[in-house]
Amino acid sequence: MTGLTEAADPLHGLSQDAVRDHAAQALTRARSRSTTLTDAVDDNDLVRQHSKLMSPLVWDLAHIGSQEELWLVRDVGGLEPMRPELDDLYDAFQHKRADRPSLPLLGPAEARAYVGQVRAKAFDVLERVPLEGRRLTETAFAFGMITQHEQQHDETMLATHQLRRGEPVLHAPAAPGRRTGKLPAEVLVPAGPFVMGTSVEPWALDNERPAHEVHVAAFHIDTTPVTNGAYLEFLESGGYEQRRWWSDAGWTYRTAHQITAPRFWRREPGGWWRTRFGVDEPVPADQPVVHVSFYEAEAYAAWAGKRLPTEAEWEKAARFDPAGGQSRRYPWGNEDPTPEHANLGQRHLSPAAAGAYPAGASPLGVHQLIGDVWEWTSSDFGGYPGFVAFPYREYSEVFFGPEYKVLRGGSFGTDAAAIRGTFRNWDYPIRRQIFAGFRCARDGAPDAAETR
Ligand SMILES: [Fe+2]
């Protein structure tokens, strides 16, 4: 018995009606965001492919509806298929992103009508289906899964907006500046076990489960994500040209693609500029760097005399409260994120300055683990001990393996419904169009005191 615990289920004790309300609100918020992202451009822009890396926006929209129909209307609701001919078109496993524009996709008006019809049926199902007795409907899990799916595609659509050329069409207030005094560069996380993953978070996905104890040796972790200013020192000191900072795979990639700076950056006579959702601006030194690949993150860390954190280190820094031995839902505690805690949900269209969210810091004093930028870790994506695929292998399990690296914490483009201390994202180490940055870690002294 170590006395380590996991925070309690936040929906525990709520009536079925309260859970239904919670699910309906989450679905409605997701739809409002999908509508913002698709109404921001004209029909021509909706059907166009803005980058080979991305689907046309209208594909994402109808795919959101198709998955919702599959799980909520047909599986949970037991209703007949509405448009069986759509199943193949919007099956992400059947068609690569690059091929999607040539499919006979629904047009913008049809896609909007389809997702609206699906949503009306899904709400009918949510009204009548018992939220118990079946794992898929327990605590409205399927509705939570579909909410997260829509929010994840909204973040993908936001990345498509970033790749789109042309005048700015999305608008939001500027992200906050620093709201702390000078922060220490690093925080020491003492050696010892903690509870990783979850067995109680009701809408956690299969890859976050089950909760299990992991022993982590003492390590130092950067207090905030690496900023543009710090990254520029690496760049200006020739970091991209010096083979020694790069892994073999990283150097091959960097050389083959002639990578010399984060994506969307360019050198001007007076300094570095970036393009952000159609706006040209000087690169802000105090914000976390974003649009870097795993390989660039790894090279920076080597240059800085550090390394990337493992996934377990990241989660311990984000969740572990040494005072009580509890693994919290979030760094700041167990309550859902508010605008004071973290830069989430596309409320701002960039990361916020390092030190902008003192209320979101962990008990040990690590800042901005949630929101701003996804953080690359050194870990491959895999199942936890006792992993069971649910509700289908294609959600996570088919991606397990060394070709994907785990990212943690969510970005300014991630909604609160789709992030928590246990949430795991994964992607190829070459990806740069996602809203990814990183922070560094290094080993602690081998004799650093155990916490328990
Ligand atoms: Fe999807």
Structure description:
This protein is an alpha+beta fold. Helices cover 30% and strands 14% of the residues. The strands form five sheets. Strands 13-12-11-14 form a four-stranded mixed β-sheet. It folds into two domains: 16-163, dinb family like domain (Four Helix Bundle (Hemerythrin (Met), subunit A), Up-down Bundle), CATH 1.20.120; 175-452, Alpha-Beta Complex (paralog of FGE (formylglycine-generating enzyme)), CATH 3.90.1580. Strand 7 and strand 8 form a beta hairpin. The chain is globular. It has helices spanning 16-39, 43-47, 57-76, 86-89, 108-128, 141-163, 228-236, 248-256, 294-303, 311-319; strands at 5-6, 186-189, 192-196, 212-216, 219-222, 265-268, 271-276, 279-282, 320-321, 326-327, 374-381, 401-408, 425-427, 436-437, 441-443. The mean pLDDT is 96. The chain has ten helices and 15 strands. Bound molecules: fe (ii) ion. Residues 63, 67, 92, 149, 153 line the site of fe (ii) ion.
User: In percent, how helical is the residue content?
Assistant: 25-40%
**What percentage of the residues does DSSP assign to strands (E)?**
5-15%
Which structural class best describes the helix and strand composition? alpha+beta
Largest sheet: 4 strands, mixed
State the CATH superfamily name of the largest domain.
paralog of FGE (formylglycine-generating enzyme)
Q: What is the chain-wise order of helices and strands?
A: EHHHHHHEEEEHHEEEHHEEEEEEE
Biggest β-sheet: strands ordered side by side in the sheet? 13-12-11-14
Looking at the chains present, what oligomeric state does this protein adopt?
single chain
State the CATH architecture of the largest domain: Alpha-Beta Complex
- Cofactors, ions, other ligands: fe (ii) ion
Pfam families: DinB_2 (PF12867), FGE-sulfatase (PF03781)
Catalytic activity: gamma-L-glutamyl-L-cysteine + hercynine + O2 = gamma-L-glutamyl-hercynylcysteine S-oxide + H2O
Protein name: Hercynine oxygenase
EC number: 1.14.99.50
